[in-house]
Design brief:
121 residues; 11 strands; 63% strand; mainly beta
Length: 121
């Protein structure tokens, strides 16, 4: 079993900042990728930002220059610093990880339960 626990969502005014955290726990030997997706009401889930074990990152065009993804490998935790938030950033944000799970060393994709971010105008 592998779990992702998110925290840091909430209500913020436009132009404000929030920091999301996501910690992985359970039976795994490594994490290949960690990232954040979001889903707004009536829309499909979309990638916000992701980071790989080799250190590369990628961002959705809509958040480039405003959001920063970072990772603490020792803590199995990924963060999303969100600055200059806009009402259109309002969504449920989901943490995602690609891990090497025990006991059979298989690749496993895991999702968090989601955390709501609401940006008021």
């Amino acid at each position: 079993q592998v779990q992702l626990v998110e925290s840091g969502g909430g209500l913020v005014q436009a132009g404000g900042s929030l920091r999301l955290s996501c910690a992985a726990s359970g039976r795994f030997v490594g994490i290949n990728t960690m990232g954040w997706y979001r889903q707004a009401p009536g829309k499909q889930r979309e990638l916000v930002a992701a980071t790989r074990s080799v250190g590369s990152t990628n961002y959705a065009d809509s958040v480039k220059g405003r959001f920063t993804i970072s990772r603490d490998i020792a803590k199995n935790t990924v963060y999303l610093q969100m600055n200059s938030l806009k009402p259109e950033d309002t969504a449920v944000y989901y943490c995602n990880a690609g891990v090497v799970a025990l006991p059979d060393y298989r690749d496993l994709e895991v999702w968090g339960q989601g955390t709501l971010v609401t940006v008021s105008s």
